[in-house]
Automatic annotation (TrEMBL):
Family: Belongs to the nucleobase:cation symporter-2 (NCS2) (TC 2.A.40) family. Azg-like subfamily.
Record-linked InterPro entries: Azg-like (IPR045018), NCS2 (IPR006043)
Protein name as annotated: Xanthine/uracil/thiamine/ascorbate permease family protein
Keywords for the protein's UniProt record, in alphabetical order: Membrane, Transmembrane, Transmembrane helix, Transport
Annotated GO MF terms: purine nucleobase transmembrane transporter activity
Location in the cell: Endomembrane system
Transmembrane segments: 24-49, 61-80, 87-106, 112-131, 143-160, 180-200, 207-227, 262-286, 343-362, 368-385, 397-426, 438-459
GO cellular component: endomembrane system; plasma membrane
Entry coiled-coil feature ranges: none
PANTHER family from the UniProt entry: XANTHINE/URACIL PERMEASE C887.17-RELATED (PTHR43337), XANTHINE_URACIL PERMEASE C887.17-RELATED (PTHR43337:SF1)
Length: 462
């Protein structure tokens, strides 16, 4: 029996009406569209994780564990779930880890990793006992649809600030940067429009190409004597010595389990869990609705196995030293190319494992170039808002608050909390109390209590 025949049997090509060549092309397509995370995730997390080895070395460490965690999680998706989905540390959740949990809340990065591991274990347990439907019902529908758009705005602010397209202003908080005179902002705007242009043209891997071209332009400008006005953001960073030693990150979550603030830790765990769960469930539901994910017999696959793969990936990722791993919506590009089975995911996993050899490149990418990806992804995420029933005020208010509060407070947790609290309250005012589950009231009270403690100064810096 040839290798092709063995793979056909393992992934059941016949039942899914596919073949090896189609699956390989689909896998390569998915990998190219999501491989930007190997560069972008380290660029976001390096500001929060201090390994003592310096930013350049730490960035490479994070790039290694990003690729490894994505590879391991996608392997589980391939062989356990037999679905054509790629997984990697999630956009938005990595920003929440770096800028909210570690940055604003002052939680040690080791403790934040511990929260991710606990979230993953909780995810595994709920999937094992079949509690997925209850968790989905627990989360208000308008908030489910609004989270994606809110995350998009959250990422957009971060990306625009890091590229100096948007800068701080004492009067208006934010204003337009010197986009006609600041070389960093100029390169960022050019790279951003190039990336959007490639995306509109349907170029596979448009984000990766945009980031690389912007980086090359930055190095060329530096070679011509153009200097960055920002001391911490050079046009062309110096190339560091390559490193693949990730020992400072692997197992760091164990240290984070000591001396916990129970309330703050619980909120962080719940936020990671809900956003991860919603992103994964949303991606899977959208794909299950597509005929591309149905078997030849017309039966729709369950979500339990993919959810378990996601949960295992999150747990492994936290143990290795990176933020929450989740299923990527970019998987749809591979599905559009005909990907039907776990063979597509296997190709994606192998791509991430191969990327480990190129992690020094991540440290050579200028900050402004890598953060272009955040703005591009942000725009793509805004489409989720169309699912909200804006004609129903009991849906419009929670959704609107989620979208507004998340970017303006620089916190995913606050945005979700605002929507979760508003939903049962609006339903009560509308005389629709029967539409609200008891668990939704309990969740709203939990988040309301946290708001009181947090903004009342009772929790101090945490």
């Amino acid at each position: 029996m040839t290798l092709s025949d063995r793979l056909a049997d393992v992934f059941d090509f016949e039942a899914h009406d596919t073949d090896l060549r189609t699956e390989i092309v689909a896998g390569l397509t998915t990998f190219l569209t999501m491989s930007y995370i190997v560069v972008v995730n380290p660029a976001i997390l390096v500001s929060a994780i201090d390994t003592g080895a310096g930013d350049a070395a730490t960035l490479q460490m994070i790039a290694v564990v990003t690729a490894l965690s994505a590879g391991v999680a996608t392997l589980v998706m391939a062989f356990y779930a037999n679905r054509p989905f790629g997984l990697a540390p999630g956009m938005g959740l990595n920003a929440f880890f770096a800028f909210t949990v570690v940055g604003a809340m002052g939680v040690p990065w080791q403790t934040a990793l511990a929260a991710i591991v606990v979230e993953g274990v909780l995810f595994i347990a709920l999937t094992l006992v079949g509690a997925r439907e209850y968790v989905i019902k627990l989360f208000p529908e308008p908030v489910k649809f609004a989270v994606g758009a809110a995350l998009g705005l959250f990422l957009a602010i971060i990306g625009l600030e890091k590229t100096f397209v948007v800068v701080a202003d004492p009067s208006t908080l934010l204003t337009l940067g010197a986009v006609a005179s600041d070389p960093v902002a100029i390169l960022s705007v050019l790279g951003l429009f190039l990336t959007f242009g490639l995306y509109v043209r349907g170029v596979t891997g448009s984000i990766v190409v945009g980031v690389l071209v912007t980086s090359v332009l930055g190095y060329a400008a530096a070679a011509l004597g153009v200097a960055s006005p920002h001391a911490s953001v050079p046009l062309a960073p110096s190339l560091p010595a390559p490193t693949w030693d990730v020992s400072p990150l692997v197992g760091a979550f164990v240290t984070g389990l000591r001396d916990l603030d129970a309330l703050a830790f619980t909120l962080v765990v719940l936020t990671f869990f809900f956003v991860d769960f919603l992103e994964t469930a949303g991606t899977l539901v959208a794909s299950v609705k597509s005929a591309a994910c149905w078997t030849r017999t017309g039966t729709s696959p369950t979500m339990d196995e993919p959810l378990m793969a996601d949960a295992v990936g999150t747990t492994v990722g936290g143990m290795l030293g990176t933020s929450t791993v989740t299923t990527y919506v970019e998987s749809a590009t591979g599905i559009e190319e005909g990907g039907r089975t776990g063979m597509t995911a296997l190709v994606v996993a192998l791509g991430f494992f191969a990327a480990v050899a190129f992690v020094p490149v991540a440290a050579a990418i200028p900050q402004y170039a890598s953060h272009i990806a955040l703005v591009v992804v942000a725009v793509l995420m805004l489409g989720n808002v169309s699912e909200v029933d804006w004609r129903d005020p009991t849906h419009a208010v929670p959704a609107g608050l989620t979208i507004i509060v998340m970017p303006f407070t620089y916190s995913i947790a606050y945005g979700i909390a605002a929507g979760v609290i508003a939903y049962p309250v609006m339903k009560a005012f509308a005389g629709e109390r029967d539409d609200v589950h008891l668990g939704q009231w309990a969740l709203a009270l939990l988040f309301a209590g946290y708001f009181v403690l947090r903004t009342g100064g009772i929790l101090g810096s945490v």
